Amino acid sequence: MTAGRVLLWRHGRTAHNAEARLQGQTDIPLDDVGRWQAGTAAAALAARYRPTVIVTSDLVRARATADALAGPLGLVPVVDARMRERSFGDWEGLTAADIAERWPAEHAEWAAGGEPQRPGSETRAHVAQRVSEAVNEHARALSDDDTLVVVSHGAAIGLGVTALIGMSAGWRGIAGVSNAHWAEVRLGRAGAGSAWRLLAYNLGPTDASSDWDAGPDREVRDPD
Length: 224
Description:
Helix content: 25-40%
Number of helices: 7
Strand order of the largest sheet: 3-2-4-1-5-6
């Protein structure tokens, strides 16, 4: 495998994100702030890295984020369902308070770092495996000068990076990336080992506004 750069980029904000609802694989579109985040971050990514390949989750919030980058660059995103968010089964669409009220024991286990299994939910290990396998597969086609952008989701990116750098799925050394932020990884060059290296995490255009999650700053006018 070559040593091309890989960026794992989280989608922009959705209404579920804004309301702190567990999103999972529910197909929620970007909201107005999310579309602004995607466009703003895409411009920063394009200027800094000059991406050559884009792979995206098939969920609509990821595909819209990918399109914000692909359109100006004249690229066509490759859709790969393995980049989907982790499934949380029947907890999807609920807030932490909702979950705690309806499943107090399972919520307590989850809050303590455990993995209570719900119908249709995925384990951390399964998500880590599918995302890292997909990244490795797409990275095989890269040259040293290529930059692959993988558009995915918060938990999927965190678990994928965890697996790529050789940590177990239970490792909690990194948190989820913010909306429309990214992680940068690169495979060691020939003679320097074959392990993936985490070069940066949770990068984004933080100077774009005073509050990224609130959208662009409103123009302040001097009083007449």
